[in-house]
Predict the structure of DUF4164 domain-containing protein.
Amino acid sequence: MPSQQTLSEVLDRLEKAVSSLEDVVDRHLEVRENYRDAEEEVQRMNADRAKLAGELDASEARAGRLEDVNKEVSRRLVTAMETIRAVLDR
């Protein structure tokens, strides 16, 4: 009987080892899936960042054009006011 008990113990140990190995493989697969999800999220964030950077550049260019137009309008208003004053002063 001692060999039968030993075989039973060995089979129990083998079953525990296989179960532990399955657990490790499951955790490894879960970590890989989480890593893949994180990589995809980083790629989406990079795409969003690039899009936002482009929009920011376009907005800055538009703001620059508006500033130039504003300066030109201001200059023309000053010229018009000076012309009106000159006409009124005559």
User: Anything to note?
Assistant: The chain has a mean pLDDT of 93. Helices lie at 2-89. The chain has one domain: 1-63.
